[in-house]
Amino acid sequence: MCDRIGVDILDDYLAGVRAHGAVFCRTVSAPPWGLCFVEPAPLALAVMLRGNGWIVPADGEPVALRQGEIVLIRSELPYTVADRPTSSPRILVDGDDHCTVTGDPEAPRRNWRVTGRTSSPDDGPAGDDGDLLVTAGYRIGGDLSLPLLDALPPVAPVPAHTSLAPLLDLVADETADDNPGQQIVLDRLLDLLLVRSLRCWFARPDAEPPPGYRALSDPYLGHVLRRLHEEPARPWTVASLAAEAGMSRTTFARRFTAMVGRPPLAYLTQWRMALAADRLRRPGVTVAAVAREVGYTDAFTFSSAFKRTRGVSPSAHRAGAP
Q1: Do both 22 and 68 map to the same domain?
Q2: CA 52: distance to chain centroid?
């Protein structure tokens, strides 16, 4: 079922993910139409509220986008959303959330903030008989979201589903008129739409969700995983985790490894290092302070574990953090 999810882990993976600068494009004349995302966000969502379209990646086959369907896009290369795979982009969207109409001699002087309708100037007055596309790029606020991104393919189609329909109705209603606060409302609605889309995608039998996601439905391991995420700094051992699960140490370790994909303490270390990587980005924070926050009694032991896991020292990671 689409609504069966790993709430806690998904919450943590999405802690730094926020929609920003939602684009909605209404075509009110006959196709062709197309938007090229020149500098894509790390994660994006596209949905056809009315009509049909295509996602055309730079290095893959086009993917159909039917009315009511959603596509999650994870790409560092430019891609196009258009009415047909062969349609040339009429609008370019850059990494600064501005769009430019191609072939327009005034385009260099007329970059619009990506908000509101981005139809071509000659499309005529807005109406209800054209295609309606909504896309959103999501900012990734650190390393906690990397397991989520790694679990997604470059293009992930999410078929229309009853759990998505109410949100799509709200998005469509919000795009119908230019009202105060429209951008923030759209962005927050698209945050919710992303979560529900991820639920549906990871519910697929062929999907590979982030580590621990499916194990949350296990009555024993789910409790343990929640405890690990709630208190990562606690001095956990396999024995204490097994006690939380009410299982023998051997049975717990075998079951955890089989369902999560890695042994209990390896999972804990990976999660601690992901938390540490994010916390090292804070201004003025010390390595020793972060070490204590994630469960290490001294900076040396923490630094060794961080370098072994992440490939760089905590100081080098902090120096290279944007």
Answers
A1: yes
A2: 23
Per-residue pLDDT reduced to its tens digit, 145-191: 888 888 999 999 998 888 899 999 998 888 887 788 888 888 889 88
- The reply to whether 265 and 192 lie within a common domain is no
pLDDT in tens, 222-233: 999 989 988 999
In this structure, of 13-17, 32-36, 117-121, 165-169, the range with the lowest mean pLDDT score is 117-121
Q: Kindly report the number of other CB atoms within 10 A of residue 287's CB atom.
A: 19
Give the tokens for residue 259.
């369902």
Domain span at residue 306?
214-320
DSSP designation for 176: S
- Tell which of 202, 233, 248 closes a domain: 202
Residues 68 and 160 in one domain: yes
Distances (CA, A) of 79 to 48, 49, 58, 83, 241: 16, 20, 5, 13, 45
10 Å CB burial of residue 84 (0-12, 13-18, 19+) is: middle
Q: Note whether 291 and 29 are within 8 A (CB).
A: no
Q: Are 191 and 19 in contact (CB under 8 A)?
A: yes
Sign of the C-alpha dihedral, residues 126, 127, 133, 139? Answer: positive
Query: Coil, strand, or helix at residue 235?
Result: coil
Indicate the SS3 state at residue 24. Answer: strand
